Amino acid sequence: xxxxxxxxxxxxxLEVLGKRPDGYHQVKSLFxxxxxxxxxxxxxxxxxxxxxxxxDLEHPGxxxxxxxxxxxxxxxxxxxxxxxxxxxxxxxxxxxxxxSDAAAALIGLNRLWGLGWSRDQLWxxxxxxxxDVPFFLYGGTALVEGRGDEVTPLPALPRQWVLLLRPPxxxxxxxxxxxxxxxxxxxxxxxxHTSQVxxxxxxxxxxxxxxxxxxxxxxxxxxxxxxxxxxQQMAKAGAQRVYLAGSGPTLFTLMSQRARAxxxxxxxxxxxxxxxxxxxxxxRS
Length: 285
What we know:
Alpha-Beta Plaits, 285 residues, four-stranded antiparallel beta sheet, Ribosomal Protein S5, domain 2, 32% helix, alpha+beta, 2 domains, seven-stranded mixed beta sheet
């Protein structure tokens, strides 16, 4: 049996530069994978079969199934696979779980079917699946631009503890579209926040948590009522700064000291909220 992990991600920066002629938004963002991972298991089979620890995700529209079919078509292969997804990353939480699962499916099937495709060969298939999928072929720390299809790997971020809180806010249909629609043009930037962090990483400098930036912070309260209460809970736990993860509603804070991070984690667990404590990860080998 072949096993491939699918890590979640946080956005250390997320800027919108404007709207593109094709209707998408031009973004500039710093992505970072974290050790909160789904796991995909692959076995040979005569047809494509998919199962998941969450039965509600076992449907033809799941990105793992879509990725499998697209790779099958692109490679001109008829063999199938038995794929099982062990789900740990919260769904629709702003952590890129579905996109990461899709990238892991491409990586796993590439090995299982003996395609021997390079990352460049998998790239067009990944791009067709969604904006975040190409990044997850790399993982680690990377600059992501365009509509998400321009990925530049960066030196690894100095290890950080990441404390995440997933508020009990139900899944919101069209969440990301609502966030983009709520953005005013005055919220657009020129990429300066991301450029500053990238330059520091390339120079080997220490990471400064105060440089974390997410444009969706400006409109998150409109889309996620009650989010501020959970920010306050994290502050009570000892978080100096609390950030929105991607398109939310997950919140996170960064800590360099393990003991302090564990103390905050146990406090929040005691409050009965869904919380995770993980480390940042390096790129895939």
